[in-house]
Amino acid sequence: MKAITISRQYGSGGGEIGARLAERLHWHLIDHELVARVARELGIPEQQAEVHDEYAKGFIARVLSQFVSTVPTAASPVIQVAPEDQTIENRYQETLRHVVESAADTGRAVIVGRASQIILARRRDVLHVFIEAPLQARIAYVVLRENRDAAGAQERIQLKDGDRSRYFQTVYHQDANDPLLYDLVINTAVLSLERAVDLIGLALEDKAQTLSLPPEALGPARGLARYRGQPADIRPPAHLTDTQPSS
Questions:
Q1: Of the candidates 133, 179, 135, 129, which has an alpha carbon nearest to the alpha carbon of residue 154?
Q2: Strands (E), the chain
Q3: Alpha-carbon torsion, ordered 110, 115, 118, 121, to 10 deg
Q4: How many angstroms from the chain centroid is the CA of residue 37?
Q5: pLDDT, tens only, 202-228
Q6: Angle at 205 between CA 199 and CA 210, to 5 degrees
Q7: Which of 157, 124, 164, 126 is nearest to 142 (CA)?
């Protein structure tokens, strides 16, 4: 296995899990450093690269606001003004992809965020993990870690969630919370961060053992035999599933 991607809801402890996992495996942790590497390859200041990062405040809204349109009429067709930083945005995305793929090619990398679960989605030698938690648990985490009050913590979480969602929808046309993007989804409201690291380690070992198998041999049916008989079809009462209006 070459790499592990850690995607997370803000305040779920995903960043801390990534750091602990890298330390335990003696792998290289790639988090904010990835933005710095992209900046170096683009030859721009790191602060400018951060503007295009998945958690940048209002980035997508700011870009979209630069498209100026008028109501179309016969005398006045639609006029669209391209955002002035469209070129740097495209360059950023291309460079980000290159840096993420290079990190995976190098191997022994724990990559936190930066759309790595999508960029590396087709690679079987990468484990994709999503860390989540209910809102109240995330608020408690941010209150503790960032020394905020509950209202400020919730506002920050909602800001981060919104930015992340818009980024993935706009750039990749994907829902970052889609469980099918991941091999393993962990809820840290129940499991401790250390236990989450344990589970990721086990999943890494298990996925590594599948690399020698053809893709068609994978799936929930692997290693199973047919049912001895037809499975029972126990349905809810008809009045709970009847879609016809009652008379």
A1: 135
A2: 3-8, 28-30, 109-112, 126-132, 184-187
A3: -10
A4: 20
A5: 999 999 999 999 999 999 998 899 888
A6: 125
A7: 157
* Helical spans, DSSP H, in 43-149: 46-50, 59-65, 86-106, 116-119, 135-146
Nearest to 107 by CA among 27, 14, 20, 17: 27
> Residue 76 is encoded by which pair of tokens?
């006045």
Give the mean model confidence (pLDDT) for residues 97-123. Answer: 91
Neighbours of 39 (CB within 10 A): 19
9-22, pLDDT tens digit by residue? 999 999 999 999 99
Span between the terminal Cα atoms of the chain, in Å: 61
Side chain identity at residue 226, one-letter code: R
Evaluate whether 142 touches 198 at the Cβ level (below 8 Å): no
Strand partners, 127: 4
Strand, coil or helix: what is 101? helix
In contact, 146 and 85? CB cutoff 8 Å: no
Model pTM?
A: 0.77
In 3D, which of 129, 132, 107 has the Cα closest to residue 206? 129
Tell the residue number behind the tokens 């950023």, with chain if given.
Answer: 92
The CATH T-level fold of domain 3-211 is Rossmann fold (3.40.50)
